[in-house]
């Protein structure tokens, strides 16, 4: 980006280089599911002409990609669902509009799982996205196409979304950066399952967010994306994010976690968490491993599961609902596993949801108290690095292998849910590699609406432990 501003390279050159990489390398990775190269080249020419006139918008001439789930006028938005393979919106999502207004050159759209409902990215329309570090493994989901594209150099930035680690997990699996903003900070209109109308609704848990190859670029893209929808809160409100709490590493107070009561942490992930903790200590930060102020992690995992699942199945057809009722009735009262929690949450009444929402507010208050004593929390994103492709059509039958022991597939979501349930910002940061050479990341959770604080800490860590490394450079 600095070279572009300095006139050392043109947007047309950057765009042509990115397109050449995609055409050369993406057959093996399958990250870009909907290319838009003709319009990208035209936008690059326009950007160079604008820069020649003296314009300097935040992303002027920068090649970027967009998750398939965002509406882009003239391109299909399917969410990987075959019945909607021909759904072509007439208008851009608000975030696509903001990218274009900032001068970005959109190369195309990136692959997703069916309905965005998986920790992998594959569907019957566009196929499977592979991990650039090991093609037998997943790139993550649901923003797996975006993370793989960044790792391969298919553009400098991408936009994803996150409700269950959907941009943090792919960033962790592919060795790039991602930021889940504070709930409500980033407008989401036009990120809607087809063929639904693009309404300016407030989503529970789900956010749109930036992905990049450096921590600083995350902040650059968040500044473009952040702000209320001009159709609702934007009528009356202007956004002003507070600055990071500190600028120097030695001034940060950080709580480091590597254990969760509901699932073990794999050795490779634990090693990377410890590596970050050591870097924080070496930089003079105050690091603690325990705090009585931390909200109960087990209850947090249960609450997150209840809110996630009850919202996800709210529009299930009634015949499925009756089948669920029978299955829930057969559960033992003593079964308090996450699997049982997921099943019970599918049957939540509005009264049940309101009770869970109230307990969420108690957790939010607990986090406010914690962040009066700490500036950030560092912890895992998932218990393992990227796992092998698993396309079992029944996700409930899948298992995740943690150091040789198998656990229910969706139990691995509890670390991502730690920030999602209360709506806190969380930045995914590359933190090392596993013994097999796979990327391993951690997340930095910050105080609500203080997104610049975890992002600044991510920048400082990037300086001390390194950051993104392309697979062909590090394999």
Q: Name the poorly predicted regions.
A: none
CATH-defined superfamily of one domain: Amidase signature (AS) domain
Question: How many strands?
Answer: 17
Q: Radius of gyration over alpha carbons?
A: 21 Å
Explain what the structure shows.
This protein has 15 helices and 17 strands. With about 475 residues, it is of the alpha+beta class. The protein has an eleven-stranded mixed β-sheet with strand order 1-3-2-8-10-9-16-17-13-11-12, sandwiched between helices. The chain has a two-stranded antiparallel sheet with strand order 4-5.
What descriptors fit this protein?
alpha+beta, Amidase signature (AS) enzymes, 11-stranded mixed beta sheet, 17 strands
Describe this structure in a few short sentences.
The protein is α+β, with helices and mostly antiparallel strands and 475 residues long. It has helices at 2-5, 11-29, 37-52, 94-101, 144-152, 168-174, 215-225, 267-282, 297-312, 318-329, 338-345, 350-373, 414-420, 452-465, 471-474; strands at 32-35, 63-67, 105-110, 122-123, 127-128, 130-131, 134-138, 157-162, 177-180, 207-212, 253-256, 286-288, 376-380, 399-402, 405-408, 426-433, 439-445.
